[in-house]
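Hey, can you fold this one?
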Amino acid sequence: MSIRVKGWVLIVVMTAFFAGPLLAEDEPSLLKDMTAVIALLGLSCGQVVSATQQADNDHIVSCQDGNRYRVFVNDEGRVVAQKQ
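Sure. Predicted structure:
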C-alpha cells in the first residue's frame, strides 16, 4: 500500500472517529428541546427519550410515558406536535 493511500485511510478513519462524538453531543440538547416543546403545547409526555429526524424541522419523538409524536413546523411557521 502506498504512503498516499495510507494517508487517506488515516484521514477518513480520524474524521469518523472525531465526528461521532460531535454529532452525539447534540442529541441530549435536542431531547431537552423536544421535551420543552411538547410540554409547552400541553401534551402528555414526561420526558422525550428518543428523537428521529425525518426532515428539516420534522422529528418523530418517543416519550417516557410511551406516547409518540411528530413534531414539525407547519406552513404557517408554527411548531405542531401530532400524536402518532
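The mean pLDDT is 80. Let me know if you want another pass with a different chain boundary.
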